[in-house]
Each structure stands twice: as structure tokens, then as C-alpha cells.
Automatic annotation (TrEMBL):
EC number(s) per entry: 2.7.13.3
Listed PANTHER family: HISTIDINE KINASE CONTAINING CHEY-HOMOLOGOUS RECEIVER DOMAIN AND PAS DOMAIN-RELATED (PTHR43047:SF64), TWO-COMPONENT HISTIDINE PROTEIN KINASE (PTHR43047)
Protein name: histidine kinase
Organism lineage: Bacteria, Pseudomonadati, Bacteroidota, Flavobacteriia, Flavobacteriales
Annotated Gene3D superfamilies: 1.10.287.130, 3.40.50.2300, Histidine kinase-like ATPase, C-terminal domain, Tetratricopeptide repeat domain
Enzyme class: transferase
Transferase in keyword set: yes
Keyword line: Kinase, Membrane, Phosphoprotein, Signal, TPR repeat, Transferase, Transmembrane, Transmembrane helix
Record field: transmembrane: 335-357
Signal peptide: 1-25
Residues that bear 4-aspartylphosphate: 682
Species of origin: Winogradskyella rapida
Length: 762
């Protein structure tokens, strides 16, 4: 309900006073605490925790602690400490939770209350599992297990579930498989009605939840031990999403489990069945649950932040109230009781009037808010599903084209037709590469501007590369490609991030091709202004396509929204123009366009670049140097196709031969036995990644050039490669001539030749 802020404290005070009297009605002070019955309302506390009413739960526990201390109710005090640990565990504040569980355990231990000790130890085990403090977990778990087993308590299975999570989080896959296999058998045989409940009530559906949890982790363990055997996917495929979801809470952990469940189903159809459609379906479902988990994380962070603030205020008020009580204890008891009674009557009266006059209005507000919220979530879900549907189509189209064209090339004997198929294959491959890069780039650029890696370059070469990338796509649609670049001195170059800027032009060019049926595509580069150190260039990308209405201008550059003005069957993911706009912000530039429906569109922007002059003598050295001996290159990559492609590219360079190995240990061994002029190192490899392999090689060979050959974004790995001792990064996919330049440079010892590489590096 919507309470006015001025009444919040009155209602909170009423709740606190009523809670104190509720506890007082159940317990009366006694000299001997051992004679007091167990009166802490654990059922109500657990219900509040399950409903995420953590603030009310905290107030209930604080009142119980205060009351038990005042009246020397030691058992209740221990129960309240244990309950506070449960609330803090729910908030993921495991360090604080450990403190209160420990307090509760020491009190129960002093009272020789084994049942209380069992509950406290179970809480500690759960806190160590959540914080991944495995050293403390391993020392405490045997003690907790032994006690719960001797008491025939259900906590034995709760502790067992935490042991399974501990093996899962630490990737102890063999232990996970053995433990879950045994746990499922034990649990299925166990009659839970014969167990001694650790609380004042039996938890509903505990056994089905644990059975499902044990089976879930057992199914995952089988796959982790051997993910190549299709039989190991049988149990994960048998788990139904809806049945699994029905026994889970709607929290982060549940959505993560559902995401993981669908990911392994995706893995099955990818690795074992090679069924792309089914694999895509489960991958999308996995991503959908990850999306829900992200939303829940954000909500929980906000909720916990507000809750911590409220708890701090509540503790301050509690301390102030205790101080006031100590001072007022000197006054008459009769006066204190009379004051409390009148306060309660006043609060009840005030609350009655408040709810009488405000209930109807609050209900109306709640209904409006719920309707608005429901409409918003329906719209979000619709947009998300539509985007994933478009993305699925966009991914399948080039993948189908690549697969089909590869078959046609294999079957075709006519050289001209085979070359035509090959050109189309390259076009589909280029489009797929751009699409995937756009998806990844959209995620990276969501919060921050891109950090540019500026190096010398010629604008004419960059535009030529862009035109060659999109040429086949334009040819397939019968479109003419036109280019105009204002002339500049041959020795003059600009400082530019070639990868980022190429991505801008490629996205704009593909966008123009996509929405143009006939006519031409033009890229124009004009010199707008020049100083001694800088040059300002204006870029235009024109087409004769469908055009854009003026009313759609506000959404053209918005991610996922910019397809609203097109028909539903149009291609494209809706990410390209958004990424162009974001990348141009990193260049301190803005993009705009002019357009006429059915006549065409012209996108344009301006960028100011720093100038640099490259000596012509160095250029001559760059093109004429040839190797003085046969050059031997070592390529390290765990992917056989990548090894084949890299080997063939190196052997196309005159005077170069190539050796290949598929893992880090072989690389270290062969470098110790044989001499190489250069090493090309993959970054992502099992067992030992490229960083670790390089560090080992640098222990006995500090001079050999080691280049990273990776599909990772070079900005993300630059610092790690430098720290490992890697000399340079080549980002896949690359242009062969640039690749050749880098290889020949780093494999030579000529210092002048090596010095010129910085202007042409990939």
C-alpha cells in the first residue's frame, strides 16, 4: 500500500510494540532460563524470508533479541541470533551471517542444546557455501553431518545439498558425480515423516525440492565429466523446464539454474546431435533466463541497499529506545504501563481512522500501478521475443548459405560457377562475422565509450578494404559501388583506429545495400578543413534505396527499435546504426542523414584526425626486404581448422615454412628442442592458455617474437598480453596483406624494417 511518509514511523512503532507484547504473552521472565519453553516463532520468520519481507523479519528478530536480553531468556536469544543469521544469508551478507550463527552456536553449546547446535551449524555450513569459503566449509561439514545424523534431522539432507553445491562451485566434477549419485539413492529411500524436525514445524515439499536439486546437479556432473558422450545428456534432457521451475523460487539462483539447464540442452544438440534449430531454441531460452536473472540481480541490489539503510536506522532507533528504557526504569512502573497502554490505544485509533479513509484510495492506486506495470512488462517481453526471433533468422540465413554454398562448391566442376559460389560464400561469411561482432559490440558499448587504438594509416586503403568486404553483397543484388576520395600527399597519413572505423563504414555500407533494390551505393570522402597537425574529413554514404520518412528520424539510431518503419520481413538485426552512432561518439562525432522515400538516403558525419608523415625511404624498405634465410614459424592453436588456415597463409609467403602444435605443453616442448624465427600463439586453449604458455617460454627464451593470433577484441586483452610477454596482437579475421606485413616484420632482425611496422600493424 501507499503510506504517507509521515505515518511510516507510527506504523513501524505499532508493529514493534505489538511484537514485544506478543513475545511477552508467550514468555514470562524467569530466574531459571532452562525452564522456559521454545517460544520463538520460526514459522513466521521463515515465511517472511521466503516472501522477501526481510525488513519486517529483521524487526521481528531485533525485538526478540531485545526482549530476551531484558528478561534473561537465553534460549530465545540464541534462536533470535540464529534467525538473524538466516536473514543475512538471504541478503548474501555471509560474513555478518557467520557472526550471528556463531553467537547462536556458543549459547546452544553452553545450554547443551543439541537441536539448537544442529540448526546453527547448518546455517554456518550454508554461509560458507554461499561465500565459497571452502577451507572453513571442509572443516565444519563433518561435524554438522555427524550431529544431524545422530539427531535423525532433516538438516542432514540440507547439509548434503550444500556439499553438492560446494563441489559444483569449485568444479570438483568427479566428487560432484559420486556425491549426487549416492545422494539421490539415499534421499529416495528416506521417509521424511520419520525424521525429527529441527524447527517447530515441518517444511512443506522439502523432499521433492531436494530430489529435484540432487538430480539436477547429478545430470550436470555427468556432462562435466564427459561432455562428448551423448548418453551423459540423457538425465539433463529428462528435466522438464516447467516442472523444474514449479519447485523453485523466483530468485537469482533459480533463474541461473534454469539458464544452465537450457544451456546444457543447447550443448547436447550442438555437440551430439548437430541439430542447429533445436540448439538455437535452447540457447535462446538459456539467454532468456539469464536476462531474468540480471533483472533479479538489479532488483535485489536495489532492495538490499534500501534494506541495509532501514536496518541501520532500525538498529539506531532500537539503541535509542534501550537507552531511554534504562533512564525511564527509574520512574514509576505504573506510569510506564499507563503510557504504553495509552500509546497503544492512540496508535490503534489512529490506524483505524487512517485505514478507513485511505483504504479505498490506496486500492485504486495499486490497481492502476499494477495495470501499468503489467502493460510495461508485456511490451518488454514482446520486444525481446521479437528481437530474438529476428536475430535467430539473421543467424540462420548466412549459416544456411555457407553450408549450402560449400556443398555446391564441392559438387561443381565448372570453374566459373565454382568461383561465383565461392564469392557468395565469402559474402555470407563476411555478413555473419559483421552480425556477430555487432551483437557483441552492442553489449560492450552499452555503458562506456570505446577506447580507440590509434595507429598511422591511409584513408584510401581503409575505404578500399571496406569496399572489398561488401563488394560481393552488392554484386549479388546488381548494385554499382562508387567511391570518391579527395587526394592527399602520398607520405601523409592519419592516426586512426582502423578496426573501429572500418566497422562504421561496413555497417553503413551493408545497411545501404540491404535496403536498395536497384541503382548504386556511393562512399564519398571530402576534405573539409586542415591545420598543420590535423585534417577534418566529411564522409557520405549514399544509396538509391527505399528511403526513410521524417517521422521515423527519432528511432533510426535506437537499438532494436529502428526496424519499426520497415516491413516485418525486412532483413537486419536493428543493431548496425546504433553501433555506428556509438562508435562515432568515441570519435567525438555525430551522424545525421537526409532522405526521400523511394529515392534514397545519405548518411553523413565529420571527424577530425591527427596528421603524421611517413618517410618514403622507410616505405621502400618495407616493400623490398626479403628474408635472408628460410624462416620457420610455429603456430599454436587447439582448433584444427584454424591451424590449417594459418599454415596455408604462412606458406603463401615466399621463404617461410610452418610447424603446428595443438596445445600449450607441446608448444613448450618443441620450442625447447627446435629453433623458430617466430611463434603465433592462440589465447584461448584448454589446460594452458596462451598467456601461461608464453610465460613458460619466456623463462628460457626471451628473444623470440611471440604474436597473439586471436578472435578476442584486442582492447580487452592488451594489458594481459603485454604482462605475459607477447610482442603483438593479430585480431581475426584479418586481411592477408596486413597479416603478411606483420609476420615478415617480426621474423626479421633488420632494425629499420622492424621500425616501420607500427604504421601497418593489424
Amino acid at each position: 500500500m501507499f503510506f504517507p511518509k509521515s505515518n511510516a514511523f507510527i506504523i513501524l512503532l505499532a508493529f514493534s510494540v505489538l511484537t514485544v507484547f506478543n513475545v511477552n504473552a508467550q514468555e514470562t521472565p524467569a530466574t531459571n532460563h532452562k525452564s522456559k519453553p521454545n517460544s520463538f516463532d520460526s514459522y513466521r520468520l521463515d515465511w517472511l524470508v521466503r516472501k522477501d519481507s526481510l525488513y519486517v523479519a529483521t524487526m521481528l528478530v531485533n525485538d526478540a533479541i531485545s526482549f530476551s536480553k531484558k528478561n534473561n531468556l537465553i534460549t530465545t536469544e540464541a534462536q533470535a541470533y540464529n534467525a538473524l543469521g538466516t536473514v543475512l544469508n538471504k541478503m548474501s551478507n555471509y560474513k555478518k551471517a557467520e557472526t550471528y550463527y556463531s553467537k547462536a552456536f556458543h549459547i546452544f553449546d553452553s545450554l547443551q542444546d543439541n537441536k539448537g547446535k544442529d540448526v546453527a551449524l547448518t546455517g554456518l555450513v550454508e554461509a560458507y557455501t554461499g561465500s565459497k569459503n571452502y577451507s572453513k566449509f571442509d572443516s565444519l561439514y563433518p561435524i554438522a553431518k555427524s550431529l544431524s545424523k545422530s539427531l535423525n534431522s532433516e538438516t542432514y539432507f540440507i547439509n548434503l545439498n550444500n556439499l553438492i553445491k560446494r563441489y559444483y562451485y569449485s568444479n570438483s566434477n568427479d566428487s560432484l558425480l559420486a556425491t549426487t549419485t549416492r545422494a539421490v539413492k539415499i534421499l529416495q529411500r528416506q521417509d521424511f515423516s520419520s525424521l525429527n524436525s529441527s524447527k517447530g514445524y515441518r517444511e512443506e515439499n522439502l523432499k521433492p525440492k531436494l530430489v529435484q536439486s540432487f538430480k539436477y546437479f547429478n545430470a550436470i556432473a555427468k556432462i562435466k565429466v564427459d561432455n562428448k558422450d551423448p548418453k551423459n545428456y540423457k538425465d539433463i534432457l529428462a528435466i522438464n523446464d516447467e516442472d523444474f521451475k514449479a519447485i523453485l523460487n523466483s530468485d537469482i539462483s533459480s533463474y541461473r539454474r534454469l539458464a544452465t539447464l537450457n544451456y546444457y540442452k543447447y550443448l547436447y544438440y550442438t555437440v551430439a546431435q548437430k541439430d542447429l534449430d533445436s540448439a538455437t531454441k535452447y540457447l535462446l531460452k538459456s539467454d532468456s533466463y539469464k536476462y531474468e536473472a540480471i533483472i533479479e540481480i538489479e532488483n535485489e541490489s536495489t532492495r538490499n541497499g534500501e534494506l541495509v539503510h532501514k536496518i541501520i536506522n532500525a538498529e539506531q532507533k532500537l539503541n535509542l529506545a534501550q537507552e531511554t528504557q534504562r533512564k525511564d526504569a527509574k520512574n514509576s512502573k505504573t506510569f510506564l504501563i499507563t503510557t504504553i497502554v495509552f500509546s497503544i490505544l492512540f496508535i490503534i485509533t489512529l490506524g483505524t481512522f487512517y485505514f478507513y479513509f485511505k483504504a479505498k484510495k490506496n486500492i485504486e492506486k495499486m490497481n492502476k500501478a499494477l495495470k501499468a506495470s503489467n502493460s510495461k512488462f508485456v511490451a518488454i517481453d514482446k520486444d525481446r521475443l521479437e528481437f530474438f526471433s529476428i536475430l535467430s533468422h539473421e543467424l540462420r540465413t548466412p549459416i544456411y548459405g555457407i553450408s549450402g554454398l560449400a556443398t555446391l562448391i564441392d559438387q561443381e566442376n565448372d570453374k566459373e560457377k565454382k568461383q561465383s559460389y565461392l564469392d557468395s560464400l565469402i559474402s555470407s561469411s563476411n555478413y555473419l562475422s559483421i552480425l556477430i561482432d555487432n551483437i557483441l559490440q552492442a553489449n560492450r558499448l552499452k555503458f562506456d565509450k570505446k577506447s580507440l587504438r590509434l595507429k598511422p594509416g591511409k584513408m584510401s586503403k581503409i575505404v578500399q578494404h571496406v569496399m572489398s568486404t561488401v563488394a560481393v553483397a552488392a554484386k549479388n543484388k546488381g548494385l554499382e559501388l562508387k567511391v570518391h576520395i579527395d587526394e592527399s600527399p602520398e607520405e601523409e597519413q592519419i592516426l586512426i583506429d582502423k578496426v573501429a572505423f572500418s566497422q562504421i563504414l561496413i555497417n553503413l555500407a551493408y545497411n545501404a545495400i540491404r535496403y536498395t533494390k536497384k541503382g548504386h551505393i556511393a562512399i564519398n570522402v571530402f576534405e573539409k578543413a586542415r591545420t598543420e597537425d590535423t585534417i577534418t574529413l566529411k564522409f557520405e554514404i549514399k544509396d538509391t534505396g527505399i528511403g526513410i520518412k521524417e517521422e521515423h528520424r527519432p528511432i533510426v539510431f535506437s537499438a532494436f527499435e529502428n526496424k519499426a518503419f520497415l516491413n516485418k520481413n525486412s532483413s537486419g538485426s536493428g543493431l548496425g546504426l546504433h553501433i555506428v552512432k556509438t562508435l562515432l561518439e568515441s570519435h567525438n562525432s555525430e551522424i545525421d542523414f537526409t532522405s526521400a522515400p523511394n529515392k534514397g538516403t545519405c548518411f553523413f558525419f565529420e571527424i577530425t584526425f591527427d596528421l603524421i608523415t611517413v618517410a618514403s625511404e622507410n616505405k621502400k624498405v618495407l616493400t623490398t626486404v626479403t628474408p635472408s634465410k628460410d624462416m620457420r614459424i610455429l603456430v599454436v592453436d587447439d582448433n584444427k581448422i584454424n591451424l590449417l588456415i594459418t599454415k596455408k597463409n604462412i606458406e603463401k609467403i615466399e621463404g617461410y615454412t610452418c610447424e603446428t602444435v595443438s596445445n600449450g605443453k607441446e608448444a613448450i616442448s618443441i620450442v625447447k628442442r627446435m629453433d623458430f624465427d617466430l611463434i603465433l600463439m592462440d589465447i584461448n586453449m584448454p589446460d594452458m592458455d596462451g598467456y601461461e604458455v608464453t610465460k613458460h617460454i619466456r623463462m628460457f627464451n626471451t628473444s623470440i617474437p611471440i604474436l597473439a593470433l586471436t578472435a578476442l577484441n584486442s582492447n580487452e586483452i592488451a594489458h594481459k598480453t603485454e604482462a605475459a610477454g607477447i610482442n603483438h596482437i593479430i585480431t581475426k579475421p584479418y586481411i592477408f596483406e596486413d597479416f603478411k606485413t606483420v609476420i615478415t616484420t617480426y621474423s626479421q632482425t633488420n632494425s629499420i624494417y622492424r621500425k616501420t611496422i607500427d604504421s601497418e600493424a593489424i
